[in-house]
Every structure is written in C-alpha cells, then in structure tokens.
Design a protein that fits this description.
This protein has 382 residues and is of the alpha+beta class. The protein folds into 3 domains: 7-114, Orthogonal Bundle (Butyryl-Coa Dehydrogenase, subunit A, domain 1); 120-230, Butyryl-CoA Dehydrogenase, subunit A, domain 2 (Beta Barrel); 234-379, Butyryl-CoA Dehydrogenase, subunit A, domain 3 (Up-down Bundle), CATH 1.20.140.10. It has helices spanning 7-23, 28-34, 39-47, 66-79, 81-89, 94-100, 103-114, 232-268, 280-308, 314-338, 349-357, 367-379, and strands at 120-123, 139-143, 146-157, 164-170, 182-188, 194-198, 210-221, 225-226, 270-271, 274-275. The strands form 3 sheets. Strands 1-4-5-8 form a 4-stranded mixed β-sheet. Strands 2-3-7-6 form a 4-stranded antiparallel β-sheet, with no helix packed on it. A two-stranded antiparallel ribbon has the order 9-10. A hairpin with a 2-residue loop joins strand 9 (270-271) and strand 10. It is globular, with a radius of gyration of 21 Å. Bound molecules: flavin-adenine dinucleotide (FAD).
C-alpha cells in the first residue's frame, strides 16, 4: 500500500493549483454575481491540458486516470467552486463515449472537448423524475434510420451553452422491464427543435450554467446512439460510478478551500486583545475541520484509485460522494462561523463557498440515494 502521490501526480496538482490561483481568484466573485463564465478561460484550460484528462491520448486527451482528474478538480474547487464546476461539467458525460461509444463517435466528439473548444452536458433529470431515473419519459421514436426526440429535461448543466448533450430517453416503448426501456442519444443543440431556458438565481455555483431544456420533434441520426438500444440504464449506472467519485473531489476541494479561508481569518482577526486562533474553541474547530477534510480526501482518492485499477466499486464510490459532500457542508458552515458576521457578506469568499456546498448533497445522487447504495453494498438487497 502506498499513500504517496507519484511525482507526476504532484506536478499535476501543483500546476492545477497555480492555474486556479492565477486565473480564478480575481474574477470569481464577478462570475458569481453576474452568473457568467469566460469562454476564454475554458480555452486556456484546454490548451494547458486540464480538461477531461481521463480522455485517451488518441482522442486528444491526456490519457490519465480519474485520480488525476479528481486532483485537478480538487485544486480548482479549492479556489472557486463555481468556476471549478464549469471546468468540470464541460466534459460531463465524455465517460460514456469512452465506455460505450463507437470509434467514429470518439473521434468526432472527444477531441474538441479535451481542447476546451466544445462543451457538452448530460440530460437525465425531468420534472417528474429525479432520483427515480427510470421514470424519465423523454421519448425517442425510431423511424426510417433516425430518432425523433420529444420531451423536457430540467436543471441540466450547460443546457444553454452546450454544443451537444447526451440525452437519457425511452426508445423501447413496448419493453415491460423498467430497466430495459432507455437508451442514451447524442443530441446536438443546433438541431431544429432544441430550446434551452437558462436558470437564473441558483443558490450557488452561479458561474456555471444550468438550464431547463426542451426537445420538440428533434431528428437525430441512428449513429448518434451511444452503446446499445435498451441498455441506457446500465450505461448510466457505469457513468455514475465514475462521475460520483470525482464529484466527491469537488467536496474535498470546497472543504479544503473553506478551511484555508478560516485559517487565514483566525490568524489575523483579534478579539479580547488576542488572535481568535488562540482560543481553544477555535483550535478545536480547526482540528475537527482538518481531520474531516483528510478523511474525505483519503476515501475519495481510494475510490478513484479503484476505478483506475479496473475495479470501480459502487459502494466505495457512494461512500466517498456522501462523506465528501457532508464534509463540505459541515466544514464550510464552521468556516463561516469563524468569520463571524463578515462571513455572511459577499465580499468574503467564504459566503460563496457556503452557498455552493449544499448542491453536493443533491446532484449526482442525493445523500439519501447514496446511503441506499451504501446500505445495499453492506447488507445486500432487502
Ligand atoms: C445545480 C444543479 C445541477 C444539476 N445538473 C444536472 C445535470 O447536468 N443533469 C441532470 O440530469 N440533472 C442535473 N441536476 C438534477 C439533479 O441530478 C437532481 O436534482 C437530483 O438527482 C435529485 O432529483 P430531484 O431534484 O428531482 O429530487 P427528488 O428525487 O424529488 O428527491 C427529493 C427528496 O426525496 C428523497 N428521495 C427520493 N427518492 C428517495 C428514496 N427512494 N428513498 C429515500 N429518499 C428519497 C431525495 O433524497 C430528496 O431528499 C442538477 C441539479 C442541480 C441543483
């Protein structure tokens, strides 16, 4: 067993840290307030090789693992969760191409993503189907070598920015098994019948794009099908076994960033004639926060390491996602507490971190769904 990152991994982490410090710090608050994200930053990140590093070299990526992807995201989220989220979500779903795509699809869709010249998203959630993904009803009817897609998805990352989306939809309308009805299609957003309505005023992660999207008789060619017809649910679960591991890294990064802000504040702020860092109550908070972050990090790195070693373990991945998200929510709460009233004001970064944290317990599987998965892995099915 070796807990040491390799030299290459340390170099990647350092480079990601320097990039985030140099590029995010000064613009993060404005991006949050104005709910925008500079496209030039994505291109820069692409040029430096930070986007979708798990994409194979032959398709324009760095050919690294999910642990390296997680290390980069951790550093990005440490400096700003909103920009970190956008730079992660641009390749959200690329895993499906690698796992199930044809050679032609990989060559067409992956290189522009890795270069930071294209944006994608993954549209699963619907108004009446969130945690219960099998209840989604967006329909794709196959006729004459093409699918005709109709339906409505909600809260979709990059819905109003993406060049293309993966759409989880019903193609097997006559199938009686619930898990055999869905497929995953690539839908380019410049096709006739696509519409997106950007959601303004999210609680946090405001630099990142989220939209409700609408498919109205969109015609999609047969070769936009990812993998096999009727296998969409199983393909989706394998995607979650990767995405949830690096969403855990979002939590680790956010928590570490909040802890760093708190440390800086308690070392400078004075009350009762002394630094607030000198109060034992403060020291206990910092000790607990640091320990929780380290625990979440260790579990997250283990989950990613298992994926990279050909053994994605659903239970471990769910544990990492749940515990890192909980850690982020609890650590940022204490970090804000240590800032007193200043933490409540948006000229202090911790306010933005606080608003960003909660979503980690909701998207990519709510904390309740993660616990169902963990319990199942421990107890078996009941
Ligand atoms: C910022 C943001 C970005 C998002 N990006 C995307 C995206 O890119 N693509 C996408 O498809 N979706 C996206 N989503 C949607 C997200 O994945 C869903 O919100 C999430 O899956 C939960 O679904 P829901 O909101 O419908 O809640 P529901 O499923 O209605 O859940 C409501 C509550 O009931 C609980 N619950 C539900 N079922 C059970 C059960 N069986 N046992 C116990 N408790 C249960 C939940 O845990 C939760 O607490 C995004 C959401 C947000 C907020």
């Amino acid at each position: 067993m070796d807990f040491e990152l390799s030299k290459e991994q340390k170099d990647i982490k350092k480079a990601a840290h320097e990039f985030a410090e140099g590029e995010f710090r000064d613009i993060a608050r404005d991006c949050d307030i104005n709910e925008v994200f500079p496209r030039s930053l994505l291109e820069k990140a692409g040029d430096l090789g930070f986007i979708g590093v798990f994409i194979d070299e032959e398709y324009g990526g760095a050919g690294l693992g999910f642990l390296e992807h997680a290390l980069i995201l951790e550093e990005f989220w440490k400096v700003d969760p909103g920009i970190g989220q956008e730079l992660c979500s641009v390749s959200f779903g690329a895993e499906e191409f690698l796992l199930f795509g044809t050679e032609e699809q990989k060559k067409k869709y992956l290189p522009p993503l890795a270069q930071g010249r294209a944006i994608m998203g993954f549209a699963i959630t619907e108004p009446d189907a969130g945690s219960d993904t099998l209840s989604t009803s967006t329909s794709a009817i196959f006729n004459d070598n093409e699918y005709v897609v109709n339906g409505n998805k909600v809260m979709i990352g990059n819905g109003s920015l993406a060049d293309f989306l993966l759409v989880f939809c019903v193609t097997e309308h006559e199938e009686t098994s619930r898990s055999g009805r869905h497929s995953i299609l690539v839908v380019e957003t410049d096709r006739e019948g696509y519409d997106a309505d950007k959601i303004e005023g999210k609680m946090g992660l405001r630099a990142s794009d989220t939209a409700n999207v609408f498919f109205s008789d969109i015609k999609v060619p047969e070769n936009n099908l990812i993998g096999k017809r009727g296998q969409g649910f199983f393909q989706l679960m394998q995607f979650f076994d990767r995405s949830r591991a690096y969403v855990a890294a979002h939590g680790v990064g956010l928590a570490q960033g909040a802890l760093d802000l708190a440390i800086k504040h308690v070392k400078t702020r004075e009350q009762f004639g002394q630094k607030i860092a000198s109060f034992q109550a403060t020291q206990f908070k910092i000790a607990e926060m640091a320990t929780r972050v380290e625990l979440a990090r260790t579990l997250t790195h283990k989950a990613c390491w298992m994926i990279d070693h050909g053994n994605p373990d659903t239970g471990t991945i769910a544990m990492a996602k749940w515990s890192a998200a909980r850690t982020a929510v609890e650590v940022v709460d204490e970090a804000l507490q240590l800032h007193g009233g200043y933490g409540y004001m948006n000229d202090h970064d911790v306010e933005r971190f606080y608003r960003a944290a909660k979503v980690l317990e909701i998207y990519e599987g709510t904390k309740e769904i993660e616990k169902i998965i963990i319990a199942r892995s421990v107890l078996g099915r009941y």
